[in-house]
Write a structure and sequence with these properties.
heterodimer, A: 371 residues, mainly alpha, two-stranded antiparallel ribbon, globular, B: mainly alpha, 14 helices, 71% helix
Chain lengths: 371, 349
C-alpha cells in the first residue's frame, strides 16, 4: 500500500506556473479547483453572514466546532471504510454488504449493552439506559463484542459464498448485494423497524475544548479512529502478516506459489474488515441511531470514501474520509439560509461535486492504482 | 432434430415469442382489467427499464446501478413540469405546462445528465463502474429527498390527470391506451437495441466489452463509446420513467431508493443480464413474484418478501449467472448438441 502522489517536489512550485498556452489549458482544471477553494475559504471567513452561524470572522467558535464535526465524522468514516478497502485491496471483492455488517454490529453492541447494564435503550420510548450508567469500559467491550461477532459472520459468509468463485469479481459483488438484501429484511424482522440508540458512556460528555463547548465523546471517537489507523498501519507495515497481505495485494498468485496459505490470509482480511465494520456500527449507533436504511447510508459512506481515496489504499481511505467529512460538515453549516426551504439541506450537491471532481481528475481515486 | 437448417431451440424461441406478442396485442380482449392495467403495463415499463440496464451489461460489459435514478430524473422532471395546483399536486414546481413539453424535458434532462455522468464514470470499468453508479444512485435518491424545491419526501402526486390527449387526458380512465403505449414502446425499444448492436457503433461496443485494450490500440476511443452507450441507455431509462409516472401517477424519492435500485438489479439477474430478452422474462417473473408473495411471512427464519426475493437472487447468481434466459440457453445448447450427435449415433448403430 504505497502512497503514490503525482504532485512534484514541493520546491518546484515555479515549475507549476504555465509557460505556454497548451500547458495553461492542461492545468485549467487545477486552476479552476484552486479558484474554487479560495472562494470557499473567503466565503467562510468573511461573506457567510446569511448562514446559520455567520462568517468565521464574526463567529470563530462555529468554525472550530464545524472543524471538530468534520474531523470526528471523518474518524468514523475511516473506521468503516478502512475495512472495506482492506477487503477490496487484497481480494478484489467489493463488499456491498459492508453497510449490513455495520448495522448488524450496532445491533449486537446494543444487545450486549442491554445485557450488561440492564434495561431498554430505545430512545424514542424514553426511560432507557441513562448515559451515567454506562462506563467507558463496558461501552468499549460491547463494541468489541459486536465487531468480533460480525467479523466471524463475515468470514463465514466469505468461506461459504465467495471462496469458490474467486476472480469473478462481478459475480462476487452481486452475491454480496444479495446478502445485503436478505440481511436488511432479516434485521427488520429481528430487531424491529424503530430507531434505537446505543447509550454512550456518561462520564465523557460535554466540555470546553479550545474555548468551544464540544462533545468530548466525539473527540474520543476521533481518538479511537486514529488509534485504529495507527494499528492498521503498524500491522500492515511492521509485521510479517502485514507484509504477506501487502504482497498479496500486488500479486496473489506469487504469494501463494511461495508456499503461503493465501486462503488463510483472505479469511483474516475478512475477519478484520468485518470487525471494523461491526465496531464502526457500534460507534455509529452511539452518536447517531440504528434503524433500517442506516445500512444503505453506511454503504454509501464507505463507497464515497474509497472512490475518493482510491480502492485498496489505507492512506487513501484516511484522506477520502477527511475530505468527505469536511465537505458534509461545512456544506451543512455554511450554506446560506434563504426562506424556509433553502439551502442548508442541499449539502448533498457538494458531495456530488466532490465525487465528480475526483473522478474527472483521477478516475481511480486520489491514491488508487490500476488492478 | 433440425428442420430446414434452423435448430429446435431457436424455433421454439420464435414460436413462443410470436404467440406471446399476438396474445399481448389482443391484451384488453383476453385479460381482466387488473391484468391489463396493473400487471402487464407494469411489466412493460419495467422491461423498458431493464432493457436499458441489460443493453449496457450485455453489449458494453457495464453493470450500471444508475438506471433507476435516470428513470427517476425523467419522472421527476415530467411531474414538475406538467402538474399544477388544479390537478391536485402541492409539491414541486407545479409549472402546469403542456404534457408534451413535460415528456420532451423529462427525456432530455435524463439523457443529458446520463451523458455527463457517463463521461465521468465510463473511464472506469467492471466493479469500479458498479460502485460509482451505485453511489450516484443513492446520492440521487437523497437529492430528491432533500431538495424540496423539486420534490421533497412526499413527492409529486396526481400526475396522471395531466397526460397528453392521445392517452385520454386522465390516464386512470383510459388504462387500455397506456397499456398499448407501453407495449409499443417496449417492442420499439427492443427493436432499436437489436438494430443498434448491429451498427458499426454496436459492433465496436462489443469489441470494447471483450477487449478494451485491443480496441483502444486499434484506434477506437474506448471511453467515448462507453459514454455514448451510457447516454443511450439513459435515454431508454427516461422512456421507462415517462411510462412509470403515467402508470403510477405519483413519484417520490422512495421510487428511486436503494431498495428500488436493488429491485431492478434483481429483476435483471432473474431474467438474465446477458440477453435483451431477459428483460421481459425478468420483468414478468419479478412482478408476478411480487404480486404473489408481497405479504408473506417467511417461516422459520422470519422476514418478508425481500428475504424471499433475495434468496432467489442469491440462488440464481450461484447456480446460473445468466438468469432464466441463461438456463434456457443451456437447454438450447443441449438440444443443438443432441441434434449434432444424433447422426453419429445412427452411424454407430
Amino acid at each position: 500500500m504505497v502512497v503514490h502522489s503525482e504532485v512534484g517536489a514541493p520546491s518546484a512550485l515555479a515549475a507549476w506556473l504555465p509557460r505556454s498556452r497548451g500547458e495553461l489549458l492542461q492545468r485549467l482544471p487545477f486552476f479552476i479547483m484552486a479558484g474554487g477553494l479560495v472562494f470557499v475559504a473567503v466565503w467562510i471567513l468573511f461573506l457567510a453572514n446569511s448562514t446559520l452561524v455567520g462568517s468565521a470572522v464574526d463567529n470563530p467558535g462555529a468554525l472550530l466546532t464545524t472543524t471538530f464535526d468534520a474531523l470526528t465524522i471523518a474518524g468514523l468514516y475511516f473506521i468503516v471504510a478502512s475495512g472495506f478497502t482492506l477487503i477490496f485491496g487484497l481480494m478484489r471483492v467489493v463488499n456491498m454488504a459492508h453497510g449490513s455488517l455495520f448495522l448488524l454490529g450496532g445491533y449486537i453492541a446494543l444487545h450486549y449493552e442491554e445485557q450488561f447494564v440492564g434495561g431498554a435503550v430505545n430512545s424514542s420510548v424514553g426511560g432507557g439506559i441513562d448515559p451515567s450508567q454506562v462506563s467507558i469500559g463496558v461501552w468499549l467491550a460491547t463494541l468489541v463484542i459486536g465487531g468480533a461477532i460480525v467479523g466471524l459472520a463475515a468470514v463465514a459468509g466469505q468461506q461459504l459464498l465467495l471462496r469458490w468463485n474467486q476472480g469473478q469479481d462481478l459475480r462476487q459483488a452481486l452475491i454480496t448485494i444479495a446478502i445485503s438484501f436478505i440481511a436488511a429484511d432479516q434485521m427488520i424482522a429481528h430487531f424491529g423497524g424503530i430507531s434505537e440508540d446505543i447509550s454512550a458512556p456518561g462520564k465523557i460528555y460535554y466540555s470546553y475544548v479550545l474555548g468551544v463547548h464540544y462533545s468530548v465523546f466525539r473527540l474520543v471517537i476521533l481518538g479511537i479512529a486514529v488509534v485504529i489507523g495507527l494499528c492498521l498501519w503498524l500491522w500492515l507495515h511492521k509485521t510479517r502478516t502485514g507484509m504477506i497481505i501487502r504482497a498479496g495485494v500486488d500479486d496473489r498468485q506469487m504469494v501463494s506459489a511461495l508456499g503461503i496459505n493465501i486462503q488463510l490470509v483472505f479469511a483474516l482480511a475478512f475477519l478484520v474488515g468485518g470487525f471494523l465494520a461491526g465496531f464502526g456500527g457500534g460507534v455509529g449507533g452511539s452518536f447517531a441511531s440504528l434503524a433500517p436504511e442506516v445500512d444503505g447510508n453506511w454503504l454509501l459512506n464507505s463507497l464515497v470514501v474509497v472512490i475518493i481515496g482510491g480502492m485498496g489504499s489505507l492512506g487513501g481511505a484516511a484522506v477520502g474520509a477527511i475530505l468527505y467529512g469536511f465537505v458534509t460538515s461545512f456544506s451543512a453549516t455554511y450554506l446560506p439560509t434563504i426562506g424556509d426551504n433553502c439551502c442548508t439541506q442541499y449539502s448533498i450537491i457538494f458531495t456530488f461535486a466532490l465525487l465528480a471532481i475526483v473522478l474527472a481528475l483521477r478516475p481511480l481515486g486520489l491514491f488508487g492504482r490500476a488492478a | 432434430m433440425t428442420w430446414l437448417g434452423v435448430d429446435l431451440g431457436s424455433r421454439i424461441e420464435r414460436t413462443v415469442a410470436l404467440v406471446v406478442v399476438v396474445v399481448l396485442a389482443l391484451g384488453p380482449f383476453v385479460f381482466s382489467n387488473y391484468w391489463v392495467s396493473f400487471v402487464l403495463t407494469q411489466v412493460f415499463w419495467y422491461a423498458v427499464l431493464a432493457m436499458s440496464m441489460i443493453f449496457l451489461s450485455a453489449y458494453a460489459g457495464m453493470v450500471s446501478l444508475a438506471q433507476v435514478s435516470l428513470f427517476g430524473i425523467s419522472g421527476f422532471v415530467l411531474g414538475n413540469v406538467v402538474t399544477n395546483v388544479a390537478s391536485g399536486n402541492t409539491k414541486g414546481l407545479n409549472l402546469g405546462w403542456n404534457p408534451w413539453i413535460g415528456i420532451l424535458l423529462g427525456i432530455t434532462f435524463a439523457t443529458v445528465i446520463g451523458l455527463i455522468f457517463g463521461a465521468l464514470a465510463s473511464r472506469s470499468a467492471g466493479i469500479y463502474f458498479l460502485m460509482i453508479t451505485l453511489t450516484f444512485a443513492v446520492l440521487c435518491n437523497y437529492f430528491f429527498g432533500q431538495v424540496t424545491l423539486l420534490s421533497g419526501f412526499s413527492g409529486i402526486s396526481n400526475i396522471y390527470q395531466r397526460a397528453p390527449g392521445f392517452l385520454g387526458g386522465d390516464v386512470q380512465h383510459h388504462a387500455n391506451r397506456l397499456y398499448y403505449l407501453s407495449f409499443v414502446v417496449a417492442l420499439a425499444v427492443y427493436a432499436l437495441i437489436r438494430y443498434i448492436v448491429r451498427t458499426p457503433f454496436g459492433i465496436a461496443l462489443q469489441g470494447i466489452r471483450d477487449d478494451p485494450v485491443k480496441m483502444s490500440s486499434l484506434g477506437y476511443n474506448v471511453s467515448l463509446h462507453r459514454t455514448l452507450a451510457f447516454a443511450f441507455s439513459s435515454f431508454l431509462a427516461s422512456l421507462a420513467g415517462v411510462l412509470f409516472v403515467w402508470w403510477n401517477g405519483h413519484i417520490d424519492p422512495a421510487t428511486i431508493n436503494l431498495t428500488a435500485v436493488l429491485d431492478l438489479l434483481t429483476l435483471c439477474v432473474i431474467g438474465g443480464l446477458y440477453r435483451i430478452e431477459g428483460a421481459f422474462v425478468g420483468a414478468f417473473a419479478f412482478v408476478e413474484i411480487n404480486n404473489q408473495i408481497r405479504d408473506v411471512e417467511v417461516p422459520w427464519i422470519g422476514g418478508t418478501f425481500n428475504t424471499v426475493i433475495g434468496l432467489i437472487f442469491l440462488a440464481i447468481i450461484v447456480v446460473s449467472p445468466g438468469g432464466l434466459i441463461g438456463m434456457w440457453g443451456f437447454v438450447k445448447e443441449q438440444l443443438r448438441r443432441g441434434a449434432r450427435a444424433a447422426p453419429v449415433e445412427a452411424g454407430a448403430g
